[in-house]
């Protein structure tokens, strides 16, 4: 299976630069994974596809202002750090630009009075492990010094930082938003609950590896990044009960999907756990838990377009993306949504 099989033509102007004023008014493409049939709706119409007894699974991670700028001790050139993953209390895996001057033992100053760091290690792919030293509460300092790590294809300034958070974001730790959830409003979630649909939350801290194109020609040789997740016993009990009753488990986003598929055993039972997952889902994968998926339109040749192709079929997905381009859907993080149903 070739990475190039997951490429498609996308005009630059279809990459959404800003979020819509009303989250739930995004467009929604409904794709039937069995027939390949496509319907065009508005996101708030999602409620019509959810039935009493179904379970909607959302990722309640919250994006941290993970992009911070500093300089080497005694030097003045600006160095950008992107916090990818918290390894332990004050140690983080980071992406550094420019990286050449940042070697093991380098001390970085972000703010003379508040925040500094030392480089402890350099990983095989160039990421740096750094340890922070600070005066005060780390998250408050990061909030003051850091900026929201919008993807590089978004060049417009984000006026309201909360628009790159889901309305149910709660657990700090992501370097990027679980973007399928950006379409939900509190009002829409209330309506869904009133219909008798279960809403459960998992936590997966999204790293930037999620969005990167696959760089190998052969999909199966790609080394998947890992991300930390938590799923509780209460969430598992509701999900397992849903399956027993033959109702649907609907994943909101590829991140929730990765949690559900990692935590489910070969017998289709999901178990509480907290650990890293490096699950790589591409065509040929047999889903153990997820029935339907709410997702956005993903980058060409990314692991995300491979994941949705595994669920809906590659031909169905590539045809749906072609239609989305023709119909001028908005793509990527602030773009429109797709619902993969059956």
Describe the structure.
The protein is of the alpha/beta class and 342 residues long. The protein is built from six helices and 17 strands. A nine-stranded mixed sheet has the order 2-1-17-16-14-3-12-13-15. It has a six-stranded antiparallel β-barrel with strand order 5-6-7-10-9-8. A two-stranded parallel sheet has the order 4-11. The longest helix is centred in the C-terminal third of the chain and has 13 residues, at 314-326. The mean pLDDT is 96.
Q: Provide the CATH superfamily of the largest domain.
A: QueA-like
Distance between the termini: 25 Å
Tally of structural domains? 2
Shape: globular
Uncertain stretches = none
The fold-level CATH name of the largest domain is QueA-like
What's the story with the biggest beta sheet?
9 strands, mixed
The percentage of residues in β strands lies in 25-35%
Kindly provide the name of the CATH class of the largest domain: Alpha Beta
Order of helices and strands: EEEEEEEEEEHEHEEHEHEEHHE
List keywords for this structure.
six-stranded antiparallel β-barrel; nine-stranded mixed beta sheet; 342 residues; Thrombin, subunit H; QueA-like
């Amino acid at each position: 299976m070739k990475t190039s099989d997951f490429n498609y033509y996308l005009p630059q102007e279809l990459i959404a630069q800003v979020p819509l004023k009303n989250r739930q008014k995004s467009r929604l493409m409904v794709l039937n994974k069995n027939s390949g049939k496509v319907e065009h709706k508005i996101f708030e119409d999602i409620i019509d596809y959810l039935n009493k007894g179904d379970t909607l699974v959302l990722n309640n991670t919250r994006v941290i202002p993970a992009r911070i700028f500093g300089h080497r001790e005694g030097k003045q050139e600006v160095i950008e750090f992107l916090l990818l993953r918290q390894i332990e209390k004050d140690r983080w895996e980071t992406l550094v630009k420019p990286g050449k001057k940042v070697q093991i033992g380098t001390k970085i100053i972000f703010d003379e009075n508040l925040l500094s760091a030392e480089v402890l290690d350099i990983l095989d792919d160039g990421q740096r492990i750094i340890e922070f030293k600070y005066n005060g509460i780390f998250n408050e300092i990061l909030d003051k010094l850091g900026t929201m790590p919008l993807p590089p294809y978004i060049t417009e300034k984000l006026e309201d930082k909360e628009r790159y958070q889901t309305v149910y974001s709660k657990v700090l730790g992501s370097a990027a938003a679980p973007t399928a959830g950006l379409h939900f409003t509190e009002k829409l979630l209330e309506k869904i609950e009133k219909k008798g649909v279960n809403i459960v939350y998992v936590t997966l801290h999204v790293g930037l590896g999620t969005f990167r194109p696959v760089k190998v020609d052969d999909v199966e040789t790609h080394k998947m990044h890992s991300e930390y997740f938590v799923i509780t016993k209460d969430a598992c009990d509701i999900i397992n009960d849903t399956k027993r009753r033959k109702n649907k488990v609907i994943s909101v986003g590829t991140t929730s999907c990765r949690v559900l598929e990692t935590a489910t055993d070969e017998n289709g039972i999901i178990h509480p756990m907290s650990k890293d997952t490096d699950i790589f889902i591409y065509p040929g994968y047999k889903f153990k838990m997820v029935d339907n998926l709410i997702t956005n339109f993903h980058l060409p040749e990314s692991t995300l377009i491979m994941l949705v192709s595994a669920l809906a079929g590659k031909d169905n997905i590539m045809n749906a993306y072609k239609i989305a381009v023709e119909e001028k859907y908005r793509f990527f993080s602030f773009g429109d949504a797709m619902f993969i149903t059956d």
